[in-house]
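Section 5: illustrative case.
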């Protein structure tokens, strides 16, 4: 990843070069060793997203149902080792937050790029929506190395949406805001925002 922030037009730039936690880096390498096309930017992205959860035995937090998980592996990691059986990936019970996940996923998909695989876009939309349930900055919740990597990811898969962030809002706040506006609701935090260390900065007064 370049040192400077990626511009909204940087979706085809070389992605994901920032240093990683050693365990995540090692697990990412394991997934790429079994990749169908290890130099594909999208394969590298999914390897990173999967590895970040895999090292913590948290694959369920990706939010992918069994059919989507199986298809994702078949597209990108057909030679992946069997250390992560399909049966180890249960559905995520988001409870009362399910409506947020469902509507954010659907909202993201309205901005999908025509240049990416549609099934990949569906998987990524689910992964992002579920990450917004967790209490940290979106890049940490996804297991990425910084905001610039989120910008690259969103620019590649949902470029028209990135163009709307003219105020350079933090991505989780921005996504929650745009989702609410698309539904005619008052903008507010994502479910995971109140647990973040910067909640008071993003939402002065708690809203």
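Designed sequence:
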């Amino acid at each position: 990843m370049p040192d400077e922030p990626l511009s909204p037009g940087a979706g085809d730039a070389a992605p994901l070069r920032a240093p990683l936690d050693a365990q995540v880096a090692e697990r990412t390498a394991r997934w790429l060793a079994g990749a169908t096309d290890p130099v594909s930017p999208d394969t590298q992205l999914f390897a990173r997203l999967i590895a970040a959860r895999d090292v913590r035995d948290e694959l369920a937090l990706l939010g992918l149902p069994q059919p989507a998980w199986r298809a994702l592996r078949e597209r990108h990691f057909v030679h992946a080792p069997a250390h992560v059986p399909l049966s180890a990936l249960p559905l995520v019970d988001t409870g009362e937050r399910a409506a947020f996940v469902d509507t954010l996923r659907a909202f993201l998909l309205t901005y999908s790029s025509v240049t990416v695989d549609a099934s990949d876009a569906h998987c990524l939309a689910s992964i992002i929506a579920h990450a917004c349930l967790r209490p940290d900055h979106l890049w940490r919740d996804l297991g990425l190395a910084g905001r610039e990597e989120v910008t690259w990811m969103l620019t590649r898969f949902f470029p028209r949406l990135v163009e709307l962030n003219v105020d350079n809002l933090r991505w989780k706040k921005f996504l929650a805001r745009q989702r609410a506006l698309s539904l005619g609701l008052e903008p507010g935090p994502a479910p995971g925002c109140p647990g973040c260390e910067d909640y008071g900065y993003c939402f002065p007064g708690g809203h």
